[in-house]
Queue: 3 jobs
Job 1
Amino acid sequence: MSKVRVATIWLDGCSGCHMSFLDMDERLVEIAEKIDVVYSPYVDTKEFPGDVDLTIVEGALSTDHDITMIKKIRKNSKKIMALGDCAITGNVSAMKNLSGSEAVLQRGYFELADENKLGRVPSEVVPKLLDTVHPLHEIVPIDFYVPGCPTPADAIYKAITDILEGKEPDTKELTRFGK
Amino acid sequence: MIREKARVKTFKINGTDVTGKSNQTILEVANDHEIKIPTLCYMKGLSCVGACRMCLVEIKGSHKLIPACTGKIKEGMEVETETESLKKHRKFILSMIFAERNHVCSVCVSNGHCELQDMSVELDMKHSSVPYIYPKFEVDASHERFVYDPNRCIVCTRCVRVCNEVEGAHALDIIDRGINSKIIHDMDEPWALSESCTSCGKCVQVCPTGTLTEKGVSSAEMVKKKSLIIDLLEARENRDRK
Amino acid sequence: MIHTLEELEEIAEAKREKDSETKEELRVCIGSSCLSLGADQIEKDLKEEISCRGLKDKCKVKGVGCNGLCSAGVLVSHIDREKNSETMYGNLGTSDIKSVAEAYESGTILKEKLLDPHDPFFLNQEKIVLENAGYIDPNDIEDYIAHDGYFALFNAIIELSAEEVIAEVKKSGLRGRGGGGYPVGLKWETVAKVDSEQKYIVCNGDEGDPGAFMDRAIMEADPHRVIEGMALAGFACGANKGYVYVRAEYPIAVEKLNKAIKQAKRLGILGQNIAGSNFSFDLEVRLGGGAFVCGEATALVTSIEGNRGNPRQKPPHLSDYGLWGEPTILNNVESFANIAPIIRKGGAWYAGFGTEKSPGTKVFALSGHVKNTGLVEVPMGMSLRDIIYKVGGGVPEGKKLKVVQTGGPSGGCIPEHLLDIPVDYDSLKSVGSMMGSGGMIVTDDSQSIVEVARFFVEFCASESCGKCVPCRVGTTELTNILDKFVAKTATKEDLILLQDLCTVVKETSLCGLGQAAPNPVITTLKYFEDEYLEAIKND
């Protein structure tokens, strides 16, 4: 039996959900028998591959690059799982929407910066911030939602095994917004 | 004014025969029979306003949905509380509540003790059906013991009602209308400057979310005393009887 | 103080005699629309001109309520009682008054300002509610009495029983003119049967729909008619107290009503033991603070009580639990204005107008892209096409009609191909709109339908009271999505969301306003889906 091709990606989030993923501990071995991780911060692949069965996305959409990525992911993935509150609701990432990008840049690069040798906000290499941070489903259709901040390892395990068994992931008992 | 004498009425909820007193609401009878109908703005002991629309039910023969919290029971009526369309509506309306303010659970002091959060689990609402609105409200932390964060408010008006109906102070009410509706103290004064607030804290205890909270407590400690109002009302009744 | 029909007749006679002393009249329309064009100055100037020319004894200058043709304001009519003739001038400004007076003095006609009283605008109307509008002086109770005013009330109190009054209203088939169309007689009968010491009669004059000004005109032109209708309701249902709830944006209507109530009290038509009977009825005007939602029955009553005007869940209905918890009749201005003629001439007479299920006439406020904007009263059942083309004169500048919005912001948009439907409660409902209070906004084909829908939805969003979630959040979400359609940046998903939102807001909102708020979107989606599809960007 060929393994299920799984990608994971971390957009505008804190990586907490990816940490939580690793907290599955020995269950990772069990899952690894069934899946091939074809793209992920855990592995060294540069380009997002084609023909992915399931992409697990952590984080909200905050930059033009995030938008490009999520559209590419949608095109190349049979199923997408929004993992964690940032991907589902915008969560902390979307708190920027209350003040706007300018205020956030000002705070980050000047008010709180120990040093800023450029003396300005960087505009090259780093992607451009969007005016509004979006949860994934506002930009592309999403198949599964597994909330949590970060989503507990048990819920991630249950979600992945449910999906591998061809079921709708049921994580109601294990996680919720903010858990 | 018509005042009916309390008589026993028999009717059906989800096909099961139930009985209640004629002055009871559908919700009260359902609760008596351990039939769970979701509620957010309802609170036992306070007047019912039917604002959150979570407890909407279907009545056979009527095309209008009515809230179980205000709907009086009728002999022979057939109530449905869990049809597919009701479940769909509730989930959608819950989405609207999440979308209208800034409910960021992970940074909220009520995380883990929030009725809105619980409702998302109860109704299996895992993402919002409607776009987030992102309004911006200033937090009022002027009171020495309490904090008011309108960003987490669902305008259920429990605080307004408890202050008016139980404490008798009516220090709280709503300013503006529609999406801009906002709970205020007195004439929109900072809480600390409210002359009618008695600092009794009942509003904090009835607030279903992290809108009204105690100062200086962790999210593990911020557990609302939900039985407070009923205990208080019962104590008053007992005192009056003596 | 008058106690008998004979005494009432004496007042009427005396007034008629006094009027007949002057053979001619110059009537200046002082309705709000004409006032905004300087009608008060025109009335003053004209009085001066006539008096300077020494014609005061021959001709009386008198301010009257709206005659309907607002688009041709300011209007002045010259009535000659002996010749039984009427010459009507329109589009007058203050600078025209000298010429009007000159023409009058020399017995000539000011041709360039002449309007034809036999214009189809006037000929196709049937005036019951507006029978006095444009004829009598709203400031003068005697003028109302001289035009059969208060005879219905006195006759009912002296000759009829409460049941007979209700029977007559039931026979007329009159349905609530505020929009819902609930039979007025039935409503009265319900409250009459309730055993309660205290009942209330409330008149809804909180006309808030954009493009609706029927009730304003009635209150300004003929305030006593409303008072008489309310007093009759009080007599029929055993209520001794009434409130007229008028929006504060109608200062002239408020002034006229207050004056009229004062006059009626002075003559003993309102107050204790009316017409020597044991029926007493007192009336008060209450001002609305400018919230659209206060036109909703339960919100209105809450507002009168002095609270924030939020609606509450029904049932209980007002007939059980209304103002201050007492049984209450709430009808709108036009409904009450129909009562006196029904009692005077009989329910059967009234039922002879209109259609079987929607008897009588209805006042509409025509506005938007139509030649004759203004007030019209037509028999129920007239087709929309006839109202707009025959009475309204059609769409100006040779443009084509696109939609007609009836029923205010919560009504629906009716497309051109359905214009032949008869205007009655049930037909309008069958095409997804409603009668509403009578606003009729015509839109020509230069308008984007999405923008029309957005306008009405935004109105509902800004007027939502915010009590229940679906209306508070849903109307704002609807507005935001329609913004994307207006900007042509919408997606296919937005269209689905738009439909879902419409369904939820309609089915789950607490009061009628929320439940009806998506109607303009629902109807335009039904009839103009292609325009929505065109607004979806191709990715």
Note: Chain A touches chain B at residues 82, 85, 88-92, 94-95, 97-99, 132, 135, 137-138, 142, 145-147, 149, 172, 176-179 (CB under 8 Å).
Job 2
Amino acid sequence: MLELKHVWKSYRIGALGSKRLTAVRDVSIDIAPGEVLSVVGESGSGKTTIGKMVLQLTSVTRGEILLDGEDVTAHGHAERKAYYRKVQGVFQDPFSSYNPIFKADRIFETVRESYFPGVKRAEWTARVEDVLQGVRLDPGSVLDKYPHQLSGGQLQRMLIARALLLDIKVLVADEIISMLDASTRIDVLNLLGELKERGLGVLFITHDLSLANYISERVVIMRHGAVVEAGATGKVFTDPRHPYSRNLLASVPQLHRKWSDGTAEPEALEPDGDRDVAPPPLTEVDEHHWVAAAP
Amino acid sequence: MTLEVADLQVHYRTLKGDVRALDGVSFSLADGEIVGLAGESGCGKTTLGKSLIRLDGRMRHVGGTAVLDGDELPIGDDKAMNARRWKEVSIIPQYSMSALNPTRKIGKMIAELLRARGKSYREFKDELVRRLELVGLTEKVLDNYPIELSGGMKQRVVMVLSTLLDPSLLIADEVTSALDVTNQRAVAETLVRFRDMGFVKSMIVVTHDLSLVYQIADTIMVMYAGRIVEKAPAETIIKSPKHPYTRALIGALPEVGLEYGDERLQSIPGKPPHLLNPPTGCRFRARCPLASEECEAEPPTVTVEAGHEVSCWKAN
């Protein structure tokens, strides 16, 4: 459904944009309907830039992004608006996604104003209550409240509900769990699981490997802007082939294994080199399991 | 016994009344012990950490005592605490990346801090450099401005700085939350190393991440709504938790290395009570699957086995 083909992104940085930083290098991924694809990486790996490009918050330098076979690059306001009917995003910090001066349910009203001006108020209220129930929120306890009166988990689920008011096909979820408490984060994760059962494609961007392991069928591990390993979650996490993936997995704190039980020192990795050179190609090492070749 | 805290009560004053962030907290800390303090946001874990060094002017110390190395800490008195801070009690703050003065080179900032304590930078310089090298930094960082360092490097500078005077008690408040997994592990293991090398005698590690604290702590305390609900050796808390809240927290934690398929974990329904007017009896009972009538009364603290204490009616 959503497809990224050899996508590159370079930012201009430094005084007056005198330098260039290549943040995403030759990334090709695809998401099918009813699938959660996790993009995992450390800060600076380019994972958020991928989300931004899919949401057209930043342009693509090279390569293309296709939705149902058509290039998504929007020209002008109308095309962009039509695109956002199909693709929406939810971000890390729920508290800064809302304007604290207004009540939180204003986010639904703005959707009505721009996308459904013809819908009668009574019908609209019914629709809002419907999507709220869909994300397991009690409309009575979240409507007509200010953002500070609601918890992070509630706000985050309202933002997902807002996206569902539009008949979206793809949801970009960029670190939507990291600011939430252990007791509520699992609710939001399980909600993503339900969305995929409804046929939505979810691009789940995270630095937390345990969340990716829990929710997604397929996972992509990124380093220095390029994909180092990709494939079925079970295969990548139980049998990581790239030294970087192995280091990452060894660092994740777990409840059934202590770091001190592990033996090996972290493996040596090649340093960040010239980012304008194409990254090593992916080779298939197993069914549904690709690894970047050693340079 | 390094630290002995008895019946600590700390409130925040608001327009609507006092928020009872800590409501009768008692625990002790042995020499060389690393204790992990875990819980949801708003449970009072950061307040507990900060109240022992009295870093926040809005805190009102209502009752209780803290005795460090046989000497009572004046935790209700800002001025008197000043002489103890850094030398006896030190803290690595939650946002230590922004704790460094951006207008000073790191070396100069440390020199100024030492001078403010009546110490000479020259005397400490060799030790400072030795410790920086220990955490993988070179002497060169002293000539850098904070902006020139990465997040993980800044975190390590602050760790070295906080422990430079060999405090007896170190409070590490969410030190790994803003870091990547690999940095997280490096920083957590450095904390253990500092303890092993005797830079700090004992440590309280405040975090919301149970799996991380399990890696480094000897003892874990779980807090809920201003109180400690369970305290036990790290292994015991994770392998055989007794309090329903601890069990629910562990049950809601997805992990790497397990295959979930279509299996779904359970969250904890509801949210913690407001501490402006906390409920009587067990504070977890509104969300607890085991709650019954007896939970309306204050739960007893039961010692399940040596070192494992639970505040719950159902502990047996």
Note: Chain A touches chain B through 38 residues (CB under 8 Å).
Job 3
Amino acid sequence: MNTGTLSRCLPWVVVGLFALFPMLESTFYTQLVTKVLIMAIFAMSLDLLVGYTGLVSFGHAAYFGLAGYALALMGPKYEAASLWWTLPGAIGLCVAFALVTGLLVLRTRGIYFIMVTLAFAQMLYFVFHDTKLGGGSDGIYIYAKPTMNLGETVLVNLEKLDQFYWLVLFFTAACYFLLRRILGSSFGRALMGIKVNEHRMRALGFPVFRYQLASFALAGGLGGLAGYLAAVQFGFVNPEILSWHQSGAVLMMVILGGMGTLHGAVIGAFAFVLLQEVLSNQAWFGIAAKHWQLAMGILIMLVALYLPQGLAGLLAKLQRKPPAEAEEGADV
Amino acid sequence: MDLAFILIQLLNGLQYGLLLFLVASGLTLVFGIMGIINLAHGSFYMVGAYLAWSLASLTGNLATAILLAIPLTVILGMGLERLLFRQLYTRDHLYQVLLTYGLILVFEELRSIIWGDDVHGVAVPALLSASIPLTENLSYPVYRLAISGVCLLLALALYLLIQKTRLGMMIRAGASNRDMVQSLGIDIKLIYTLVFALGVALAAFAGMINAPLSSVTPGMGSHVLIICFVVVVIGGIGSVKGAMAASLMIGLAETFGQVLVPEVAGMIVYVLMAIILVWRPEGLFGRK
């Protein structure tokens, strides 16, 4: 089998294997993997910005949180809302927010861009933290999970863990293939061109700003999808879901996995969430588990210093070593 | 709202702004001169406050505590620059963000291990604990005035250091062309270490002198960090003058915002930032 067929078939095989997972495992692991898959969507959406468009956003949690709050506030308080309109509504809101802030933040570059995206996310944080709009610092409960009904029949019952798992898996796979498609198109190629050399792309006549804005809005919308699903899973939202720790965590997933490779974002989400679970496991680490963030922090620093290409880069390096058959940048 | 009340808010706003300047000036210097984005800068502020609290309860005197703590923070700054930040000068900002994000987690957990997660208070030094009466029931604490005075003196010293001394000349030269400065026989590495340690010490010092005014709490670093980012963005990266202007602006905006429109006070600074970005994307005093 050559590399082309492998890279085409492997994702389908992986999705298939994942689909079997809830039948084999306990509810705890099903929930854990659901969380990982949601984070994978979140990480992929950020990878589109950081890894492909060259925009290092440090405020990506804004969309994650905004969509969660949208779900909590759009539906009736104690009854279930319909997913058919709350999900598009939440994503639409995120896209709109991304377009408005994008007009401002895309005027800046480099360090400025990092700080300004962070500042806008913090602004949202304070909106929900300081005002009564979203229950202040306590947040709000989402008492009933959204419904997915076609007429009278229940299409997917989100209260059921395995059905919710499959729905999340569907969205993760859809997100992966959609982004792969987009990045393979001329639009995606142009984005990568902008990442490498913005001035040259402008000189070639590409509307750089509009391309970046489109990428920014798309990333915001997909980040919103992840946030919506996370809010459904946990059943509550509070300002912490849009704090900058969240933005840092997702950035870490992207880099840990290897930026600029979609599967890297998925691997990074897995590694990060599982690492978090392992390090905070009291049975294994006892008293040290309480201070698991110390180990996490040291690990993050080590990745930043010694693993700039992430796990995906490490894999590629290991693969490439024996026959030295390098295929640069062909894994999209 | 009478005049005395406005005067008090004005003084509070200025004092808060000047304190922000101490933290933000280090941040902007490290950005401007070394090209490093340092998310862990807020942690230095927190470390300063905790050092002041623990040393003050050991020695029973805040002034002694501060005198003991400053050398410690300088050493901390030099150590961090040598061990970690030096590796990042030539790397993409992304990795600087990641490394310093990890550093925050390390600082937060070390703080939790060493000092615990409780909220602490530090007593105002007896010498400065008086208040100046303004009207029958309004008065202004001397300690706040003293802080403002100390901050102003430090700002002046910083200005003189950068603009008028030989070392300041080297720092400025290093900011515009690192290689050229080095080939002229100046030890640029040493200068970077000094600038970084200066930034750490300033931030920590701000935490120390502010400890009696606001309690010493676990989350204090991150709030200050984000506000200082806004200050640096508004003022323009690398501009100490800009940091001063922006700090005062933010200090006043937030103080008056909390009095006049408490519901949206948290947002005001970000709205201010958005407006300034539309008008001048490179900040008030930033270079294009």
Note: The longest strand of chain B covers residues 131-133.
